[in-house]
Design brief:
The structure is a homodimer. The first copy, chain A, is mostly helical. The first copy, chain A, is 72% helix and 0% strand.
């Protein structure tokens, strides 16, 4: 992973689109979880559980979604591993990169 | 307000009941506000506004609801002023105390 990858303009554009797609999906999932927490719990103190949940998610999202090209090669495989992106949604960023992801994800599965 | 008030067992019981009633009302209002925020905003980023709102409310509630008898004489008038308690819901804590609240609240209105 210490190898440097180059990013052409079109690859950068594809990377940005995939990144934004993953954020959007994750925000939607967090929102749905928040709505379910409120819906399923009649006890008003649930708001403190919700506060804790959102606080942790905000920290997690802030930390995870780091768009520097130097770390993107670690961000994307994580997003695929967690299910926020499919590997083929990263096709546009270059085969030499997705090939690395594929190998990393295979290792993770073993 | 530097005057010391005494709290009989029945007055303590009434104080606790009023205090708990105010907390319960405020938690319910916070919950309803949270539900409305989610309902009225289709943008998923609303979860971060919700997180901020709940974080501030938790801090406010933690700070406001202080059940030490030494500060209760300041807590109750605030709760009445903010509408979480009616003055007559504090009848059980002793007339000498509610009389002080009445004067304080009158001053606040002027």
């Amino acid at each position: 992973m210490s190898r440097d990858f180059t990013w052409s303009p079109s690859q950068k554009k594809a990377a940005r689109a995939a990144f934004d797609l993953a954020v959007a999906r994750e925000l939607k999932a967090i929102r749905q979880h928040a709505e379910t927490m409120l819906k399923d719990n009649k006890e008003d103190r649930v708001i403190w559980k919700l506060e804790e949940y959102l606080y942790e998610k905000r920290r997690e999202i802030d930390q995870k979604y780091d768009y520097r090209y130097s770390v993107l090669m670690l961000v994307f495989p994580r997003l695929v591993h967690e299910g926020w992106l499919a590997l083929d949604e990263l096709d546009g960023i270059g085969e030499e990169k997705t090939e690395v992801f594929r190998k990393l994800l295979d290792l993770n599965r073993k």
